[in-house]
Design a protein that fits this description.
This protein is mainly alpha-helical. It has one domain. The chain contains one helix and no strands. The longest helix is centred in the middle third of the chain and has 49 residues.
Length: 53
């Protein structure tokens, strides 16, 4: 039982590290992603005005 707990604990730590790295990556790219999303939304609104999409 303790072995399983240890294993899950280390797995949890790994997941936490991965999550932190991913979060920092997301922070770096969030401005790019948000600008892309706003561009996509603007294109979609433009397309709906022009009845393309």
């Amino acid at each position: 039982m303790t072995r399983v707990f240890k294993c899950s604990k280390t797995l949890n730590l790994d997941l936490h590290l991965i999550h932190r790295r991913f979060s920092s990556l997301c922070d770096q790219h969030s401005s790019v992603i948000s600008s892309y999303l706003s561009l996509e939304i603007n294109l979609h609104q433009l397309g709906s005005h022009l009845h393309f999409f």
